[in-house]
Amino acid sequence: MACKSTDRAGMLLPYATCTNSPGSFSCRCTAGYRGDGFTCADVDECSLATQCHSNALCINLPGSYNCTCQVGYSGDGVIQCKDMNECLVDSGGCRNKALCVNNQGSFSCLCQSGFILVNRTLCQDIDECNEQNNLCRVNEECKNVDGSFECPCRVGYYRPASNMDCVDMDECKDNACHVNATCLNTIGSHTCTCKRGFSANGTQCDDINECSAEDTCHPRALCTNFIGFFFCSCQQGFKGDGFSCQDVDECSLSVTICPSFSKCINSPGCVCDLGYVGDGLACSDIDECQRENICPQNKTECINIPGSFSCVCKKGYNLNGTLCLGKTNTHTLFTLIMDCPLKCPPSLSTHLPPQIVVSLRGVSTQWATICAYVSAASRVTGRTALVSINYSLFYVHCTSWFFCPNKLTPL
User: 171-207 — its CATH code?
Assistant: First the structure.
């Protein structure tokens, strides 16, 4: 029979070799297989004695086997499998403060104290303040930090020494409030309250203008605002503390400003004299000449005087009694300044020194004559009168009613 590698069913046997001999042949399984040549089964070399390196993996193959170094090692798998240091490349993939530690055939990521390993490569901070209770002492607060925790004093407390407990801090010693506020220290804190006369939150205090509010003082009082306070003072003619003001009855006083032949009538506070307008504290003259037809004669013109007015002849006319007649030379007006030590009583010259003579542009007249014209003037208001002496016009200003003049001043 010729040597032909077939199986008994006439099929080719790929794992056997045929050896021809005279008149016969023989079949032998190839390396890696075992059997009688007609039947060959794979030999599992990995189950036999050690074929690979101790740090290699044996993989059986049909008719053979393969040695591959395990993960973490490098080499041919048979003679050499050397440890591979994974930490040399990108720290082995360890992240966020993780430390790469090389092992035989492997590596590991280790975390420092205060961290926990996540996904075998990532270190995550442990929040000790949430994980545990009562880590800090009284008046301290737990504060988490990377890998640990701290116990600083709470707000409003301080530690006198590193080994001492936290004690209350007196913030008022450091002028924590506004200069116009009162500081009150409390346990762990403080309060700021604006002083009287100021308003705001205590760290800022603004002056209160009490005078801007109604009824702060009496209606007959003046309100004066100051920084932090105010003052009420009664108006002239009233007395009191400013919160309560009563009218002063000047007529009941032993000394009044009214002469013996006039009557004193008390009024609330101060009132302006006739011919003036105002609140009594400030009076301004009324200009009567602004009114229509105040002087009815067309030969007269209105001259306003303090507290009153006068209708005088126009330029070129002469006063005759109460009428302005004819055209004469222009008259010169004089002002008599009343400064006088003596009054002009209704009896006129009884108490006057007749020897004193005043010259009015060559016209001589005595005190009695002047006082006569003053007291007989048809318009005497306030302390001013318009008088005519020898057809000359004069304004008489008295510092008191009907005082005699001792000085003449031309207008």
Answer: 2.10.25.10
